Amino acid sequence: MRGYIDSGVVDKVRAAGGEVYAITSEPQYLADQAHEHWNLNFENIGDPHQEIPRICNERDWLTLYANRGDTEFLQRGADWTVEHPKGFFQPGVLAITQSSRILYRWRSVPSHANLNGTVARPTAEYVWRSIDDSLLAGETSGDAPHDDDPEIDSPPPPRIVFMAALIANGWFLGAKSFAYSPGAESTPVRFRKAFRRWPPFGLLWVLGFALLPKIWVLTGLVLWLAWIVIDIRATWGRMDIQEEINE
Question: How many CB atoms lie within 10 A of CB 144?
Answer without folding.
Answer: 20
